[in-house]
Amino acid sequence: MDFQNVIDREQTNSMKWDFYPDVYGADDLWPMWVADMDFQAPKPVLDAMHEVINHGVFGYHRRPNSLFDATTSWLKHRFDWSVSAEQIVFTPGVVPAISHIIQTFTEKGDGIIIQPPVYFPFYALVNNNERNLLRNPLQETEEGFTMDFEDLEEKMKEAEMMILCSPHNPIGRVWTEEELTKLAELAEKHGVLVVSDEIHADIILEGKHTPFSKAAAGKDVETMTCLAPSKTFNLASLQLSYVVFENSESKKAYENHLQREFVGINNPLASAAAEAAYRHGEEWLEQMLEYVKDNVQHVKQYVENEMPEVKVIKPEGTYLIWIDMHGLNMENKELEQWLRSDAKLALSDGPNFGKEGGGFVRMNAACPRETLEEGLRRLKEAYDRLMA
Ligand SMILES: Cc1ncc(COP(=O)(O)O)c(C=O)c1O
């Protein structure tokens, strides 16, 4: 696969390329916001989808056992995590899955912990379901971002549930086994259900991903893990994800909830794509990770050399780069305005991820180098004008 190859996504109804004017109010920006990749999916995935299309009958579909097999084999192979098909429930997205978990396992007013700055739908998931949002902000230290375990323990005293983001979007931490074990100990002590959003689990640039459920094994703590091939293989619009349950009664309760809500996923293209990705996509994934690592390194070096007042937080995981712009001494609104009107960039604004994201932006590095360089060029030119 040639990741250098620029594929024109304009006028394809791409959220990132075609709909940014609705969000940013300008139509001449360079889009580096939505968390998808500008790469084509692996060839075996496209072949599998073509086969379904060639058959041409799109009547009601059931997820085949072979998809469950491919999924459990992937989890065993990539994370040495033994999961059986009976533990898995497929869902039409990680975000809806978390919403349904909240509805099934908590009551109105219950406390749910999140760790800001964090993937912004987590706020809406808690608020829309009328649960009580408990914030356990990450701490920035000399060694980078870490969890504030002292505060976490305080929040756990009032919480029924926690939504863990692992790896963490937007700060890019790949939590260590030690950190996750500590979290599991606290969750056990305070009886908190941990829902671990591991949608980025396959996108590890440095270190090793530990499924939270493995770190919690042997402890009396309930965990549910949300995963998907969507970020890994750029299949997000196919809407296929899944939850791994450790407790069969909880799984039943969740399935009953989905049934009551008539939520199912019946898309044969998604099943074919996911199965092919898990069976035959690993080589593509390894190449993509190398390419993205180089991109991330390039951004870091370029920014260090050319924009000394800007600081790149190098991600250990995800293809998203958290960039600290406090050195430009701008208020949030001013920074947003500058990025749009002067740099002509559509980056994700830090405050979207919570107030701790003020002064930061998130840049998506899953694109051909040429696309990345255009974004960096625009940023540098605006930076030079600002510093002049
Ligand atoms: C942490 C995290 N969870 C969930 C999602 C989206 O999940 P889905 O499209 O399956 O609802 C994203 C997408 O950016 C994400 O970063």
From TrEMBL:
It comes from the Bacteria. InterPro entries: Aminotransferase_I/II_large, C-S_lyase_PatB-like, Class-II_PLP-Dep_Aminotrans, PyrdxlP-dep_Trfase, PyrdxlP-dep_Trfase_major, PyrdxlP-dep_Trfase_small. CDD domains: AAT_like. It is an enzyme of class 4 (lyase). Gene3D superfamilies: Aspartate Aminotransferase, domain 1 (3.90.1150.10), Type I PLP-dependent aspartate aminotransferase-like (Major domain) (3.40.640.10). Its cofactor is pyridoxal 5'-phosphate. Keywords: Lyase, Pyridoxal phosphate. GO terms for molecular function: cysteine-S-conjugate beta-lyase activity; pyridoxal phosphate binding. Residues 52-379 form the Aminotransferase class I/classII large domain. Its EC number is 4.4.1.13. Pfam families: Aminotran_1_2. The keyword Lyase applies. Belongs to the class-II pyridoxal-phosphate-dependent aminotransferase family. MalY/PatB cystathionine beta-lyase subfamily. This is cysteine-S-conjugate beta-lyase. It comes from Salibacterium qingdaonense.
